Amino acid sequence: MRLRPVIVTLLFVVSLSNKVPAGAQFPPLAVAPFDGPAAELHQQTWAKHLKVDVEIKNSLGMKLRLIPAGEFQMGSSESEEERISDEQQHTVRITKAFYLGKYEVTQGEWKAVMGSEPWKGQQFGKEGAEFPATSVSWEAAADFCQKLSKKEGKEYRLPTEAEWEYACRGGKATRFHFGDDETVFGGYAWYDKNALDINEQYAHPVGQKKKNPFGLYDMHGNVWEWSSDWYAEKYYASSPTNDPQGSETGSIRVHRGGSWGSWPVYCRSALRNGDSPSAKFGSLGFRLACSSIR
């Protein structure tokens, strides 16, 4: 059973093994809040330390961005407009840098790995190599990760809920990664007013809107993105500070970010939502993550 009506997007995260010489000094954590130039500097500093690039591309041409290790306030403050009670604010520390997909996984990328077209014939959707892969369940997304990992020789996975929110915020403590002003929302996201309400009831090609401070596109809107976590309403009250992995059990997997059919309130950085692992919709997709950097 769903928590709220949704249109879902799958999120795919890449984590770094951070193999560095013994005794090496790590850069300082990227402690939020920080601005766009600081976000870029943190990425460059960690890339130099790890001897990797800020942006990488795998054999399929999928681009991923380095997300530096850092600390932020996960959830929302009690003063945040239209907050929900399961967003209890708490400190989270991401202790290892990781790679996260620059874009949502596309239909072209999905077909190259899976050979299928789950969006085909669905009520809400358009076909094309650069459109997000939609109507993808959590189970199917996990299968995609396994197959791509075998193909690439690296461990790809879905991001944790904490990694997703940290990457989405890009150092910001505001409702959205660009601030609080909903009047400029259309410049950053596909949502109800520039999609659903004008009879464009489908996910749009990736990368057409403005990026966030870490260089990620469509973190708000377009499609909901799966995380690896089971949903638990009160998990935030007892979750560990370092690298929380979500509840150990549950019946609902978390997805984040809102979609082309969502109001801005459902696209907020802190907003939590979810569905059964077998659920699939025309607004559900994912973003890629990888556990090794070389």
Number of strands: 13
SS class: alpha+beta
Low-confidence stretches: 1-16
Using only C-alpha atoms, the radius of gyration works out to 17 Å
Give the class-level CATH name. Alpha Beta
Q: State the major sheet.
A: 6 strands, antiparallel
Structure, explained:
With 294 residues, this protein is an alpha+beta fold. It has one domain: paralog of FGE (formylglycine-generating enzyme), CATH 3.90.1580.10. The protein has helices at 36-50, 107-114, 138-152, 161-169; strands at residues 13-15, 30-31, 55-57, 63-67, 70-74, 90-94, 98-104, 156-157, 224-230, 253-256, 273-275, 284-285, 287-290. Strands 1, 3, 4, 7, 8 and 13 form a 6-stranded antiparallel sheet that branches. Strands 11-10-9-12 form a 4-stranded mixed sheet. It is globular, with a radius of gyration of 17 Å. The N and C termini lie far apart (40 Å).
